[in-house]
Amino acid sequence: MASFVISIEKIIQPISCIAGASLLVFSSGAMAQANNWPERSVKVINPFPAGGASDTLTRIMSDQLQQKLGKPFVVENKTGSAGNIGMEAGAKAPPDGYTITSATIGTLSVNQYLFKQLPYEPEGMTYVSTFWANCNVVMVSAQHNPSKTLKEFIEWSKAKPKGISFGSSGVGTTPHLAGELFHIRTGIPTTHIPTRGGPQTVALLLSGELDVSIDNIASYASFLASGQVRGLATTCPERWPRLPDIPTMAEAGMPDFVITSWGAFVMPAGTPPAIAEKVSKAMSEVAADPAIQKRFLDAGAKITSTTPAQTSAFVANERKKMSEVVRLSGAKAE
Q1: In CA terms, which of 66, 128, 202, 316 is 20 to 30 Å from 192?
Q2: Whole-angstrom Cα distance, residue 207 to residue 143?
Q3: Which domain holds residue 272?
Q4: According to the 3-state scheme, what is the secondary structure of 233-255?
Q5: Residue 320 forms part of a structural domain
Q6: DSSP per-residue codes, 189-203
Q7: Among 186, 217, 234, which residue terminates a domain?
Q8: pTM for this predicted structure
Q9: Which of residues 234, 269, 298 is at a domain's end?
Q10: pLDDT tens digits, residue range 264-306?
């Protein structure tokens, strides 16, 4: 029996050495690939329309990555189906590091609870880093709505026999869920009007075709600054730095109404982790630049930075939270 054990050990030892050597060669190859990356332009897919919050912030970050990593980072808008079309294109791209997708809370933590089936696997993508966060603001047209406070708007809304209309860029987006939650909390009848994105929602609000929008700050920053829309309350946990005069929902009399939005860069499943780490590190350097922090705030968002592991854990936690919000709203998408 002893001689049998010895003979097995003699067989296993060279196999282990070969496996170890193979792993070393593989690791060295992956590291070399990451060190040389990028050797050509990188496509950045944005699943949402040009001019919206995601698009604006994605372009700022892509421009900064281009400067840091020395190759073009070209943003391409692939819109539709609440971001699913762009996410599918990004998920099915070759996992070689040359396709990044600008995902959001909707495409990573909400859509799987709205649609019966997604054309991509949110959990299976390679996470890189979060890079922006903001919250929503309850807004009315300064020209078409007399409300100056949230309380006045609720009273005005209750006086309308058919209730109020609100818009969003699609079923399950945070503006849509915020509108549904407003209906649940106030009992005011609401009609959801889906749009092609932030720019169209703004246009409908300004024209008076929408009564209210509870949309992310980034899409409306310039309109709030110009006074074309009036902010009544934010869904932030605390007052937004650039909107110090607008109360939070809790301060305005509606507690437990915190809804935040965020964005993150992801890559196809199977992308070498070293490449994801390289991008994440570059993004953290961008996030540390005070000038870029100001640009993000000017656009209506705070710049953020996380490691790939932190990003994965954060998104998983957001899924748990948003699954409950979707359940309460009863929202479904076809």
Answers
A1: 316
A2: 9
A3: 41-117+127-132+261-329
A4: EECCCCCCCCCCCCCECCCCCCC
A5: yes
A6: -EEEEE-SSHHHHHH
A7: 234
A8: 0.78
A9: 234
A10: 999 999 999 999 999 999 999 999 999 999 999 988 899 999 9
